[in-house]
Amino acid sequence: MKNATGICSGKSSIADYLVREHYFKRLYLERTVPTPSVEKSATNASIPRTKLSIDGDVPRFEHVEALLDFVTKRWRQRWVTTDIWDGSVLDVLQRRPFFLLISVDAPVSVRWERFKAR
Question: What secondary structure, in 3-state letters, does 2-34 show?
Answer without folding.
Answer: CCCCCCCCCHHHHHHHHHHHHCCEECEECCCCC
